[in-house]
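Title: [Solved] PiggyBac transposable element-derived protein domain-containing protein 3D structure

Original question kept below for reference.
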Amino acid sequence: MYWPHTSDTSNEAVSNANGRDRFDAIMRCLHFHDINESDKFAKLQPLISHLQKIFMEHFVPAPNISHDETMVEYFGKYSCKQSIRNKSIRFGYKIWCQNSSSGYLIAFDPYRRKIHIWKCRIRIDLCEVFINSTSFTGLL
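Solution (posted by the thread starter after getting help):
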């Protein structure tokens, strides 16, 4: 697993900042174990919140913002794992993403198998912050 070099998926800022050996070392040592049954991502929430804050600090408004879901491939056993037919990644974690037209990830939230109001909340939050400088696309 390493950063792709194709023009549509590569991000030189990421691949230049993080070499293959460092990435492999992080992946070998990174482990999260959650015993909270009510929220499967409780241990990850501080990391998610920190990343969201950093992403918003470095975000440069783009002409369009889109909201979509993505799958992170995972074949192990975990109750939040999703299976979606007719997708290139059929098994894994579903993550709601807010992206700029340049491909920059502005915000994300993992699907937690419950009534998920994140779609509405994140759209409203982004509209309040960027309504004067950005036109929105998607399902607003």
